Amino acid sequence: MSGFVNIAMSLAVLFAFILAAGGAFILVRRPRAERTKGLLMLAVAVVTLGNVWLLSAPLTP
Q1: What is the superkingdom listed in this entry's lineage (predicted)?
Q2: Is residue 61 part of a domain?
Q3: N or C: which end of the chain has fewer CB within 10 A?
């Protein structure tokens, strides 16, 4: 993979962890009406990590 792809995937993982931390914070500290946003942030973090995992997997077994 090229250098740009490596940097982009590293940033995606970093931002996924930031999203997960923010989502967990919203779930714990915010009122009940805003908890949906926290769940959505956690879902985006999981999807982003899944995409990075799939893109970094080798093509052949």
Answers
A1: Bacteria
A2: no
A3: C
